[in-house]
Write a structure and sequence with these properties.
The complex is a heterodimer of chains A (169) and B (190).
Chain A: H1 9-17, H2 26-34, H3 36-58, H4 64-130, H5 133-142, H6 145-166
Helix pairs in contact in A: 1-3, 2-3, 4-5, 4-6
Chain B: H1 8-21, H2 26-48, H3 51-67, H4 75-95, H5 105-112, H6 117-134, H7 138-149, H8 154-161, H9 165-184
Helix pairs in contact in B: 2-3, 2-4, 2-7, 3-4, 4-8, 7-9
The chains are: A mainly alpha (169), B mainly alpha (190).
């Protein structure tokens, strides 16, 4: 016997679990009343075993088919979710690439945009002030590249916006 | 993206697919379930202290078991693996913040209508045990239940709980000592 276990402990547990406690072996029963470890084993095992017997008889469990069916449906659902996950990633990557291209286009066109703003300030505004509209129109046609760039930006932005708007549907 | 739902056709397909996805056939599962379900349900009920939670965890345990790719040397090994899943689920569940600790419906029913002296005594014992178990840690409850209610050997418990057999004796000794003290002195603390 050591401080954690008694050499008779297993026999005591077996007797309690088999429902034959107090044991027919008087020596074992007497030992259990004096041994600190075995007396604790009896105190705990008798209560737990009795509770187990009653609870097992009263336990209500669903039928096997129901558990199988729920598991099958859940497995299918999780497979579907796993299958759509790469598509979600693909949408995200596409959106990121689109935004990157837009920023690159704006970066390339930036000198032109600055030049256009300068032209507006230096040419168009004085012309409008003096009433020479035809000059303004001619200037606009020459610089229609701005309109084209704006239209292209709209074409790129529209699908991205649509994606985010419809993402929750 | 919105939550996915399955159509009726997909649900029917799921039934066929399950035979390929799960580690056993429906018939094999039915036999295994009949052998283990009640034991597992009681184990979950006693380790969580909550019958409703036990019902949820029962389904969850069998689902995880069916989805696992483990191979088993014997039926006992299969059963120990099932209880290991259940133990891990209980532990994960206990880590989550709890809003309310509900009394077991079985206990409540027992309190309401003890029909005779025997059932009244049984109910009182059950309530004492529930209260005493509530003072123990989840792992201590698992250890004691498997050892003294289900009668598992130390090796079986070590396999199911994922602990070393050598450390199990000390853990079991401490848990048993605590429960014995609480049962002897229900009003006090160990």
């Amino acid at each position: 016997m050591n401080s954690l276990q008694c050499m008779h402990e297993d026999r005591v547990v077996s007797a309690v679990l088999s429902g034959t406690w107090p044991s027919e072996d008087d020596a074992l029963t007497t030992h259990a009343t004096h041994c600190r470890i075995c007396s604790e084993v009896v105190a705990v095992a008798v209560v737990l075993r009795a509770d187990h017997e009653v609870a097992r008889g009263e336990a209500q469990v669903p039928v096997a088919g129901q558990v199988w069916w729920r598991s099958a449906v859940r497995a299918r659902l999780e497979s579907s979710q796993a299958a759509t996950r790469p598509m979600t990633w693909l949408h995200g990557v596409t959106a990121a690439i689109t935004i990157g291209i837009m920023l690159a286009v704006v970066g390339f066109a930036w000198p032109t945009i600055v030049g256009g703003a300068g032209w507006l300030r230096d040419v168009v505004l004085p012309l409008m002030a003096t009433g020479e509209i035809s000059g303004v129109v001619a200037g606009v046609v020459r610089h229609s590249v701005f309109l084209a760039a704006g239209a292209a930006a709209c074409l790129v932005i529209a699908p991205v916006l649509l994606y985010f708007v419809l993402a929750n549907d | 993206m919105g939550d996915l739902t399955l159509t009726d056709m997909e649900r029917l397909g799921a039934f066929d697919e399950a035979e390929r996805t799960f580690q056993m056939t429906e018939e094999t599962f039915r036999v295994f379930y009949e052998l283990t379900a009640r034991q597992l349900r009681v184990y979950l009920s006693r380790t969580t202290g909550d019958d409703r939670q036990a019902d949820d965890l029962l389904q969850e345990t069998y689902y995880k078991f069916l989805r696992s790719n483990a191979t088993f040397a014997s039926e006992d090994h299969r059963k120990h693996y099932l209880f290991r899943i259940a133990t891990n689920l209980v532990r994960d569940h206990q880590r989550r913040p709890r809003v309310e600790v509900a009394a077991s419906p079985a206990t409540q029913a027992g309190v309401a209508s003890p029909t005779d002296a025997h059932s009244a005594e049984r109910t009182a014992t059950r309530i004492d045990l529930d209260r005493a178990m509530a003072h123990l840690k989840p792992r201590e409850r698992s250890l004691l239940w498997l050892a003294y209610a289900q009668g598992w050997s130390h090796e079986e418990i070590a396999t199911a709980l994922g602990v070393k057999t050598a450390s199990l004796k000390a853990m079991l000794f401490r848990a048993r000592h605590r429960l014995a003290l609480i049962l002897k002195n229900p009003g006090g603390r160990s």
